[in-house]
Amino acid sequence: MRNIKIVVQYDGTRYSGWQSQEHDENTIQGKLTAVLSRLLGEKIELAGSGRTDAGVHALGQVANFKTRSQMPCGELLEKLNHYLPEDIGVISAEEVDGRFHSRLNAVRKTYSYHIWNSPVHNVFDRRYTWAIDQPLDVPAMRRAAAELTGIHDYKAFSSIKRGKKSTVRTIEAIEIEQTGADITLSFTGNGFLYHMVRILTGTLVEVGLHRKTPEDMAMILESLDREQAGVMAPGQGLFLVRVEY
Amino acid sequence: MRNIKIVVQYDGTRYSGWQSQEHDENTIQGKLTAVLSRLLGEKIELAGSGRTDAGVHALGQVANFKTRSQMPCGELLEKLNHYLPEDIGVISAEEVDGRFHSRLNAVRKTYSYHIWNSPVHNVFDRRYTWAIDQPLDVPAMRRAAAELTGIHDYKAFSSIKRGKKSTVRTIEAIEIEQTGADITLSFTGNGFLYHMVRILTGTLVEVGLHRKTPEDMAMILESLDREQAGVMAPGQGLFLVRVEY
User: Fold this and answer.
1) What H or E segment, with its residue span, contains residue A171?
2) Could you give the ipTM of this predicted complex?
């Protein structure tokens, strides 16, 4: 069996996410699996590096699958893009070692979150940003972001209800860049809990609006209590940028 | 009466153009006029710098209107953006001399046309590009573009059927930039005929596909015959970038 790794871009607007919890067929994974199975003439099981929520986008989601087909990767890439809907694109396909697994072997992930901070609509990127009218205090957001990096138990910043799995993660960096009305937050870490990037973003926005202070962050982390953190930012501003192995 | 100049951005995807020929209400001008009339409490007549076709976008369309209202321009700008749909944004509003007219006083216009030249979908800009799979010969397109600049009768490059008005125009520059799969054509001139930028673009694409040669351009101009020029590029790749006075 060959093991094929693909890198996928998608506009998540129309989808219920990468993979649904409730056997909803309207998923990115579902569309890819259907096209792959048809092209290769066998039932394909596609493993992604992780789920993305409904409405969340990807510039570089990674997935892999095993196949008996001998179709060259270049031909597969071309055919995939031909049959996939126009809001899903496969940017590379390559044969990898049989032991490679897109989720289990991932060592680092980068997400970006895009805020449009202006009362004037962002006409062309409105589907890919969170529009916030009131001016955000970006220096305060950067001080809070520094408090949130490192090795921490991020349970307060996740929607995980209970469970035995560890909620400790390492965030290497949270960078916040401002160019005019565009404010982009970049999160790099070894893994992220369910809803974690969106709750971190919502909390940082509350700091930017002076509803919370950078000094509150340590207390929120220690509380392990979702109620202490801020709102969850909408999915449409979030992009999975890359997965490293 | 005050004379107010506004600069407008829009995503033309959902609209029948800036102004429809057939009393179609689904136009950018129609939306703006309705919101302005409601905000200012009087019937507003809005003059645009020129029409844009169905599906065509604008980064800097210019329009003006007369009003008796004393509402400050800053307040008007804020309220306009609040009530307009999210695919229309007003980026500036200022009081100008009573003699200013957005169409009659325009001296230069710039349009850009965006081509995505790759078999892999442009997932995020698909609504704003013309996707062409086969590789385009950009140097040949540049040689043809040079033949098309200057002072010419552009009748062959327009959908004007007949009429007494001059079809002579000056194109100062047609620049073609390529960055990976993105090919952007920029047209600057003193005015453009109906469908002219789209037919110029379609003709240049035929040169890029080696269906026409740069040397054909002089013959097409001289023919004054629409049948000699190339296809009309789809509206969705076209942007009105700026209007100068």
Assistant:
1) strand A168-179
2) 0.80
